[in-house]
Amino acid sequence: MTVINVMCRLLCLLLVLIAADPAVAQALDCDTRGDYIDALQDHDDPLKERLGRLYAEPDASFCRTVRVRVSPDNDRDWDLSLPDFSALAWLLRAIAVLLLLAGCVWLALNWSRAMPALVDRRRPPGSVRTEHHRLDRPASLSVDIPAAALAAWSDGQPRQALSLLYRGAVQILVPEQAAGSSTEREVLHTLQSRSVPPETLAWMQRLVRAWQRTAWANQAPTDGEFTALHQAWREHCREAGR
């Protein structure tokens, strides 16, 4: 009889659990079981009062502990704000200021050489300098100007070599301006106003550009360029001097 009685009570308890409010599951929780059974036993509803007495029976004295595993990632607050680039911005500004100061210092130290070279690069191929530039030359020229110019070039003196070629050409092509008081612009203007061959005028323009770049910007022509100017000197100047 005892076994049958226990089974009947368990069956009755199961039916009550099914028919009762879902909140009765609190009776299965070890943390809330005691308080919940006391509340049922004191309830005005006969069914719930009976359920409370059944829960209090020794045969129904069981409970459960539910463990819930919570992942730390589920509670993480995602930080969507941008990182602080203020330090990087300050560093870039400092680098820009230093580069600007370095550029100003370099320009101040190299102004005399940088500006003529810049003007030469921007000038069209057929144009000629118009600035005044007079030769600082000795009182007389060598008898064999091409030989003296070649010797100066071989000795590593490109300025002297081109100076000899230019002064010698002026002395032969424009003898009235050979005293050294005329600028290259004035010399070329005089040649253009005369009936000199176009080849001679073009050669003289190349010689003037090579001389000015060497004298002002310290940019000597290549060996091939100097050789072409040197070899053509006798051709143009001898024909003009006849």
Give the second-level CATH assignment, the architecture of the largest domain.
Up-down Bundle
Tally the helices: what do you get? 9
**Outline type:** rod-shaped
What's the β-strand tally? 0
Q: How many whole angstroms does the radius of gyration measure? A: 54 Å
Which range does the strand content fall in? under 5%
Low-confidence stretches: 123-139
Helix content: 55-70%
Q: Which class of secondary structure composition applies to the elements?
A: mainly alpha
> Which CATH top level class of the largest domain fits?
Mainly Alpha
In round numbers, the mean pLDDT is 74
Compact summary:
It is built from 9 helices and no strands. With 242 residues, the protein is mainly alpha-helical. The protein has 2 domains: 54 residues, no CATH class; 139 residues, Four Helix Bundle (Hemerythrin (Met), subunit A), CATH 1.20.120.
How would you describe what is shown here?
It is a single chain. By secondary structure, the protein is mostly helical. The protein is 62% helix and 0% strand. The chain contains nine helices and no strands. It has helices at 2-19, 33-41, 46-56, 86-122, 145-154, 158-173, 184-193, 198-217, 223-241. It is rod-shaped. Mean pLDDT is 74; it is low at 123-139.
